[in-house]
Structures are given as structure tokens and as C-alpha cells.
Design brief:
This protein has 392 residues and is an alpha/beta fold. It is 31% helix and 27% strand.
């Protein structure tokens, strides 16, 4: 099968074979970087393998002669935009939303973005959709620092004429960069978030909020972690690092004495405060700031936790952050990662200082692609934490 849009690299393999292949990817990575004895469990499949992706990011372009608006994905190994009409891994109503935007933007004479020249008004459309209630938040990313009347009209049409739209936001990004979202987002229509459900808790998800793209698989991960903690601890204290909107902390709050959360993005911390209030959760302590610096400061306070949840970006953790996490944690680190290579690197570092990896459990968060989510449980009872050489 031809891979036209450059994604879903494993679409030509049946799903059972995909799961076996992904286990081999994780095994090979662990054994090459971390340990030849590393044991990897069978991959837990995604509850859905079609229409599972609930965050969609479309580059917007325009044909040279007819000026027809294009929205889709890039061909593999290129920046040639493929105009996507139907994508089987995202909810069908997302196809309807983007088709409406293509048509209406052209009617309003809104120009698509030219990546080489850096001109054109509309450069991306981001759609966040809720698995819980099927509502969508649409984010129009504009190549500007202001909102034009045409973009305002487009936002009104989207909110008024499409079913299931919770709100429309504008994001400003006029820099020549491969980053999709700029720093500033403005709310124009409806609400500036959608609501999602994990572990029977209701979450608000905004335009720039980190949230797993496959909510049903994410729910499987959260319940897996929660069961492990319930089976092995009674009312532990938990540190939730790189917390995003504190999804782990919120899901685990009802089995913990206290949860302390640290997240760098202010918008996510503000949403976490709303979510804890909405769910009547009183035992979560929220902090905004750099995770490494926060961990460093916590060691000076002498506070310790039974469990630390590490869920860093793809680049993983710094050695200093891992050192501080070992100092702060009495019993277990639960490390959640979407990058087997950086996970293996960080597990190797932890084990070099006396930690022991209990288990590595892959989850198929991204069916039909080579990406794989992993949850590693690390025992810290025999760690020897080095002194810090690079203070924050």
C-alpha cells in the first residue's frame, strides 16, 4: 500500500503483527542501550485502531494557479502537502470540519501559507476532539500578530454552522519555524477548551494543553498505573513530575495521601487548578516551573515521596533530574515514555546507581505507526545517589 501522506508507516501490516513488531522494537532498543537482560512484556493493544486520534494538526497551503486551499499532511520525506479528504485514524467528524474550513476559507479569500516564502494568512488548523462527548475545539493558526476580519468571520462560521464545536481559538505564529503553535492564543467563539474523561474524572483540555492523542489507550495506561499502586501501597505520597494538566495526579488522588505536581506551562497548571476544583479534589499541591529546578529545591526541604511519576517529553530526563528524583523517592519511580531510546538511556542511568527495573510494559498508543508508549516500574531501595555537580 502506498504511504501517500507520510504517516501510518505500518498500515500495510495486520494489527496483531504490528503489536509483535513493536515489542521487538522496544526489546531491541532496551537490549542495545540499556541491558541485554531487559524483559519487555507483550504490547497492550489500543482499544480502537481506527478513529483513535483525537488531536489533529493540519498544515494549510494553497495551489499556485487556482488558489485552491489545501489541508492535509506532508508526503514522506518532504514538505509537499497532500490534500487529505479522509483519514481513517481520526474521528470522521474531523474530516467534515476541515472540509468546511477549506471551502469557507476560499470563499472568504483567506490565503494559505507558503512555507518557502513565509507569506499567506492561515498556516495550520489544529482540532482537539473529545472522546467523551464528541465536542471539538478548533484552533486557527495565523501568520500574523493580529486577527483579521476575514479570520473572525471564518471563526464565526465554524462555530455557528458546524455541529459539535465547543469553541474556536486563534493562535498567532508569524515566525519562520517548524513549530505549529506560537506563544499567544486568543479565544474567539464558544469555550476555549473541550472536556475529556479519564479514570472517571473530567478533564479540561485547551489549545496548548499536552494531553494524550488516544484517550482510550491513555485510560488503559492510567488504570494500569493505578492498579499497580493500589496493589502495592496504602495511601502513598506521590510526586507527579512533567505533569501537564496533572492527569496522573488527578487519577491517582483518591488512592494517595497527597499528590505534589510540577509542570512548566502556566496554561496547563491553570487548567489543572480548574480540574481539581471541578472534581472536588483537595489533596493535590500544584506547582508551576521547571521540573529539574523544582526537584532540586525539594531536596533542600527534606521532603520525600513513596512514588514519583516521570512523564517527560521525548527527549527524556537530564541526569540531574534523575538524581533528584532518586533522592526524593523512597520506593518506586514509574517512568512513562513515548521514546524507547531515551527511556532506555535513562533506565541505564538509574540502574547504574543501584535502581532495579521491575517491568517494562508497552502500550499501543499510536496504531499503524512505529511509535510506542511504555511504562517502566523502577525499584529504588538500593540506590546510591551521586552528589550534584551542576546546580540549577
Amino acid at each position: 500500500m502506498q504511504k501517500i501522506c507520510g504517516a501510518c508507516q505500518l498500515q500495510f501490516i495486520n494489527y496483531e503483527a504490528q503489536l509483535k513488531h513493536k515489542k521487538i522494537i522496544v526489546q531491541d532498543t532496551m537490549r542495545t542501550i540499556f541491558s541485554k537482560e531487559a524483559e519487555v512484556k507483550d504490547v497492550i493493544p489500543s482499544p480502537l485502531i481506527r478513529e483513535y486520534r483525537h488531536k489533529i494538526q493540519y498544515p494549510i497551503g494553497q495551489t499556485k494557479d487556482s488558489k485552491r486551499i489545501l489541508a492535509g499532511y506532508y508526503k514522506a520525506g518532504s514538505h509537499e502537502l497532500v490534500n487529505i479528504k479522509y483519514c481513517p485514524i481520526q474521528p470522521e467528524y474531523c474530516d467534515k470540519i476541515i472540509d468546511f474550513i477549506r471551502t469557507k476559507a476560499q470563499e472568504l479569500n483567506i490565503s494559505g501559507y507558503d512555507e518557502k516564502k513565509g507569506n499567506g494568512e492561515l498556516r495550520h488548523v489544529v482540532i482537539r476532539t473529545s472522546n467523551a462527548n464528541k465536542k471539538s475545539l478548533v484552533v486557527l493558526v495565523v501568520n500574523s500578530l493580529t486577527v483579521s476580519n476575514k479570520i473572525r468571520e471564518l471563526a464565526k462560521f465554524i462555530y455557528r454552522d458546524l455541529d459539535g464545536i465547543n469553541g474556536v481559538n486563534i493562535n498567532f505564529n508569524n515566525k519562520k519555524t517548524n513549530l505549529i503553535l506560537g506563544e499567544e492564543t486568543k479565544h474567539l467563539e464558544g469555550k476555549d477548551y473541550i472536556e475529556e474523561t479519564l479514570c472517571d474524572k473530567t478533564f479540561k483540555v485547551g489549545a496548548k494543553t499536552f494531553f494524550q492523542i488516544n484517550p482510550q489507550c491513555a485510560d488503559s495506561i492510567f488504570r494500569y498505573v493505578k492498579k499497580y499502586i493500589t496493589d502495592n501501597f496504602k495511601n502513598p505520597t506521590i510526586l507527579d513530575a512533567y505533569a501537564g494538566i496533572t492527569a496522573f495526579g488527578i487519577c491517582l488522588a483518591d488512592i494517595a495521601t497527597k499528590v505534589v505536581s510540577i509542570e512548566e506551562v502556566k496554561e496547563s497548571v491553570d487548567l489543572a487548578k480548574q480540574i481539581t476544583d471541578d472534581n472536588n479534589i483537595a489533596n493535590i499541591e500544584l506547582h508551576q516551573g521547571d521540573a529539574g529546578r523544582f526537584l532540586s529545591n525539594e531536596t533542600t526541604l527534606g521532603r520525600q515521596f513513596h512514588i514519583t511519576i516521570l512523564d517527560p517529553p521525548r527527549k527524556g530526563c537530564t541526569p540531574n533530574s534523575l538524581d533528584y528524583a532518586m533522592k526524593l523517592t523512597k520506593d518506586k519511580i514509574i517512568y512513562v515514555s513515548c521514546n524507547p531510546a531515551t527511556l532506555a538511556r535513562d533506565l541505564k542511568y538509574l540502574c547504574e546507581h543501584g535502581a532495579k527495573v521491575e517491568s517494562i510494559q508497552p502500550f499501543d498508543m499510536f496504531p499503524h505507526s512505529y511509535h510506542i508508549e511504555n511504562v517502566a516500574i523502577v525499584d529504588l531501595h538500593n540506590v546510591n545517589v551521586p552528589e550534584q555537580k551542576l546546580p540549577f
